[in-house]
Write a structure and sequence with these properties.
alpha+beta, 3 helices, 18% strand, 117 residues, 3 strands
């Protein structure tokens, strides 16, 4: 984006509301449980330069960085629910996300163990 080099310019999802001139840079990660808070902080700092560039280039009122972080065994940080509210995702979507992560973790573990036989 733009003329200057920004090393981390590919969030998983970019959502822009043209009427309110708000942009959301959404990045999803599934770390080990002990790395949840670290990964959250990394995602914020990683996309700060991009957020500034997007705000200036696209003339946005606001650019929000929304890390969606769920531990590989289903743990969620306290930051997840407010992030979903900011995205206007209502209800218990975080529970569905937890289930999806757990099912994928189980599938990966099962596939690995089957290869060991």
């Amino acid at each position: 984006m733009g003329n200057r080099h920004i090393p981390n310019n590919r969030p998983d999802i970019v959502f822009t509301n043209r009427q309110t001139r708000q942009t959301y840079l959404i990045d999803i990660t599934i770390p080990l449980p002990e790395n949840i808070e670290k990964k959250y902080r990394e995602k914020i700092s990683k996309y700060l330069p991009l957020a500034e560039e997007v705000k200036a280039m696209w003339r946005q009122e606001e650019v929000n960085i929304i890390p969606i972080v769920i531990g590989a065994t289903g743990e969620i940080p306290v930051t997840l629910k407010p992030a979903l509210v900011a995205l206007e995702i209502k209800g218990n979507a975080y529970i569905t996300m937890q289930k999806a992560v757990l099912i994928d973790t189980c599938s990966l573990t099962r596939a690995f163990l089957n290869q060991m036989q």
